[in-house]
Amino acid sequence: MEPLEPPPAPKPTTTAPGFAAALADNAAACSGARQEAERLAQRASSRAPEIMAAAVDVAGNERVSALFSAQRSAVETGVRSARTNAHALNARIHQLNATITGFDDALKECGDLVAWTQAIASDVRDCSNAIAELKVRGGT
């Protein structure tokens, strides 16, 4: 019987620009960690009958068997709860990512509006200067 190995540490996020990209990287890392946790939970659940059978053989006691069964039920309940929480967290991360992406897009649009108003102001100045030059040359 080989020992269970701990899940790998989350990978560092990339240096992609923007908070939305960092959030997406974090969501991907959380998803990978969740999948690894589920894989380990399934592996532990599949090994539980072996461990329980070995313990019962060694102990030869019905009470020990009942305790192990209760512990297995508690572990399985904890695994189900952890999976539910992981799915809920994943959904919240996706919602947050969508909100931040929308905010990022809105900021880009504001930047485009500022650039457009600066271009219009420059055109108005050019027209005003041209009219002033015509007045000076025309004498009116």
Automatic annotation (TrEMBL):
Pfam families in the cross-refs: GCN5L1 (PF06320)
Protein origin, superkingdom: Eukaryota
Protein name per Swiss-Prot or TrEMBL: Biogenesis of lysosome-related organelles complex 1 subunit 1
Organism the protein comes from: Pycnococcus provasolii
